[in-house]
Every structure is written in C-alpha cells, then in structure tokens.
Specification:
Elements lengths: L2 H6 L8 H14 L46 E3 L1 H17 L4 H5 L3 E3 L16 E7 L4 E7 L3 E5 L3 E7 L2 E6 L3 E4 L5 E4 L6 E7 L1 H6 L5 E2 L21 H6 L24 E2 L1 H10 L11 E4 L14 E7 L7 E4 L3 E7 L2 E5 L2 E5 L4 E4 L5 E5 L5 E7 L1 H6 L5 E4 L5 E3 L3
Antiparallel strand pairs: 1-19, 2-3, 3-10, 4-9, 4-11, 5-8, 5-10, 6-7, 6-9, 8-12, 13-14, 14-21, 15-22, 16-19, 16-21, 17-18, 17-20, 22-23
Bound molecules: fe (ii) ion.
Fe (ii) ion binds next to strand 4.
C-alpha cells in the first residue's frame, strides 16, 4: 500500500504503528543529543490527584496515563508529641553523655519529619522542611548563613537563644524567631535545661530551584576566631522597633539579609501572640478558621516571607470550623488545647505540641473538643502560591455548596 493511501485511512493526529516506529527509531539516535521526538500525548509527569469538579479530593489517583515511575504526593500526616517527644529526650541524653558535642558529629540534634507520600525525602511538602531540635545546656551552633528562609517556634518554657545578625533573641514558649535568607544566625543554650523548638525551612523549594546553599565561614571580628556572633542589640530589639504595629521607625534600615521583602521583625513573642488572639475572642471570626491572624512584614504588610506564610488562630471551646481547602500546603503546630482535625477521610486527634501537615486542596476542618481555648500556629506555602498566581481557596457550606473564598 502506498504511504499516501495508508495515511488517509488514519485519524488526524494519530500516527500509525509504522510511523510511530519510525519516530521511535529516530529517538534511539536522538537520545545522545538530549531531545525527544514526540510519539504520544505529552501528559504531565505527575498524575492528577484531584480535580476541581469531580472526585472526593481525597488524594486518590483519578487518571491513568504516562507518568513518572516515582510519582510523589504529600499526604496528610500527624506527628503526636507522645510519639516524637521521647526521641528528643533520648537525643538530649545521648548528647549529654557524648565526649564531644553531638552536633559536631550530626550538624544538628534534631528529628526531621518525613511525609510518607514523599518517598523518604526530608520534607513535609514539596516546598517545606520541618526539623524539631533539642539544644542541651552549653550547646552552641556556629554562625552560618543560607539561601533558605527559616524560623523556629519554641516549644519549651524557657532557655536557648538565637542570634540573628546581632539581635539576640532569648527563647520562651510560643515565640517565633525568623531568620530571613542571607542573615547570619547562630543558636545556643546557656540555661540549665534543654530547649526544644520546631525549625521550618523552604529548603525543598530552593533545592528544586537549584538555589540552595549554606555558608559556615562566618567572618569573625579581626583577631577573633569566634564562631558565634556578638550581641549587637539587646533582647526585644525587633519588638521595640516594630511591635506596636501601624508605626515604623524612620532611623533604621528595614533590610534584613540579602533577599527582598523579608521581615525585619525577627522575634515575635508568644505572650503577645496569645494576647492578640484573646483580644479578638469576642468577634465572630472566620467560619473556616476561627479567630485567625496572619503574621506580616511590618514594613510591607505582606507575608513574612515571599515563600512562607505564618499564622496563629484561636478556636474557642466547642468551636468547629467549616470545611475548607486551599491550593497551598499547611503545617500546623498545636500550641494549646485539644481537639481534632478532619482531612478528607482521616481524623487527627491532637493535643499540645502535636503537629500535622494538611496537603494542598484536601477538604479539612478543625474542632476544639476541649473546655479551654485551642491555639494553632500555621506555616504554609500560600505566600508562594499567591506570588505565582496560583492561590485559591474554597469553602464547603453545611448543605454541601462549595463557595469560592477570597484570596
Ligand atoms: Fe540556619
């Protein structure tokens, strides 16, 4: 049969077996030149896990197709303090008994959370890494600098410090200390008891962008071999500069680190966060989030980082939020109270110091089952999704109607 007659019997756009075989043969030659002659539909390398209008949004595979053999999808996951806390105690004991500081061997004394959907990678979502660290008395982590944005949320009542570009922040429970990218920082514990905190970083995102780096070569003052920074400002410097809100000082630079739009408010006190939430407890709040507040860069009014968004929310006794889903991933730290979070068909029953990851676009809601207030801190990649024009949120009302929520 002539080639032209043969081609006429086929549907447009569909190659015959012979034609495809020809292309595949060429692909055998082309591989060494690092390109591919298209022989089939160029489907995404990841399967769709949900759609906007169909399916349960439960993270189930919805379609077959040509996909990567190593498909990864963050799954909802809950880490209970009763499970992970004892390991921090064990690490502290091993560190106390070690003949050389344990962190010199392991870099940090911490556990790193792994999402069961991400194949053992040290990340909780495609964008965020979470470590939970313990520093025993006399520990000193040398000054360093990196391209990742980071924070630490303090779990223990007192003890420990982080020095960010000379601002020495003494740690207390509920505090959040931010280290914007390109800021020198060091940590330590000069108290009598171990300190524990949760480190959040946008490290996986930077790795994906091929832009992750760390520099440990702190330029110590002339004549000194110090690996830690001298305190240039006393504790509370950030709060004095920016803590009142609505006013910013005119006599200092608001630039921190090497990045752009990074918060110059380095340290937010747990007691101030709680007081801010308490002051609003009489308001109706958000039906999907309760009394929810966003931490912002006090100079720009935007998210703390362009990549990560931080929040705190109060759920009053008995309060149950309506179902919500967002295109961003959210990490939750239970600072106080008890209750549960439903995420599609899972229910995570939580208490103080438990943490959870709620992956993108899965329906979820929170319920405070206790007699006291529940306080949740959140870290999400909503800021990133907003900045690339991909942030969306939906709410589900009691009758099942789905409404689009504001951005
Ligand atoms: Fe760091």
């Amino acid at each position: 049969m002539a080639a032209s007659a043969k081609a006429a019997t086929h549907k447009p756009g569909v190659a015959s077996t012979d034609t495809r075989a020809l292309l595949e043969e060429l692909n055998g030659e082309a591989a060494k030149f690092n390109f591919w002659l298209r022989t089939e539909l160029n489907t995404p390398s990841q399967r769709a896990w949900f759609t906007d209008t169909a399916g349960t949004g439960g993270g189930n595979l919805l379609k077959a197709g040509r996909v990567s053999a190593n498909q990864l999808k963050a799954l909802p996951c809950h880490w209970a303090w009763k499970d992970y806390g004892p390991y921090l105690e064990k690490i502290a004991k091993i560190a106390a008994d070690a003949t050389v500081p344990l962190y010199e061997l392991t870099d940090r004394q911490s556990i790193l959370l792994t999402n069961p959907g991400l194949g053992g990678r040290l990340q909780i979502t495609s964008t965020m890494r979470t470590a939970i660290s313990v520093y025993i008395p006399t520990d000193k982590a040398p000054a360093h600098i990196h391209s990742a944005n980071a924070s630490r949320t303090i779990l223990t009542d007192t003890g420990g410090y982080t020095n960010v570009e000379g601002e020495r922040c003494e740690c207390r429970r509920g505090d959040i200390i931010w280290t914007p990218n390109g800021t020198w920082h060091d940590h330590g514990n000069e108290s009598e008891t171990p300190v524990m905190w949760i480190d959040m970083l946008d490290w996986p995102l930077l790795e994906y962008l091929d832009a992750a780096w760390v520099d440990m070569d702190y330029p110590a003052a002339s004549g000194s071999n110090d690996t830690v920074q001298a305190a240039a400002h006393s504790d509370g410097y950030s709060t004095r500069l920016y803590g009142k809100g609505g006013m910013k000082p005119r006599f200092v630079s608001h630039q921190r680190g090497w990045g752009h739009s990074m918060t110059p408010m380095i340290h937010f006190r747990g007691e101030d966060i709680r007081a801010s939430l308490d002051a609003l407890r009489g308001e109706a709040g958000d039906p999907y989030e309760g009394i929810a507040m966003q931490f912002v860069n006090p100079v720009t009014g935007t998210s703390i980082y362009p990549t990560m968004d931080y929040g705190a929310q109060l759920l009053r006794p008995g309060e149950a939020t309506k179902q919500k889903r967002e295109t961003s991933n959210t990490f939750v730290i239970v600072m106080d109270g008890e209750g549960y979070t439903e995420v599609v068909d899972k229910r995570f029953t939580w208490k103080k110091n438990d943490v959870m990851v709620l992956p993108n676009f899965l329906w979820r809601r929170h319920v405070n089952t206790g007699k006291a207030d529940a306080v949740l801190y959140t870290v999400s990649d909503a800021a990133l999704m907003r900045s690339i024009g991909q942030y969306r949120a939906q709410g589900r009302q009691d009758d099942g109607t789905v409404v689009q929520l504001g951005v």
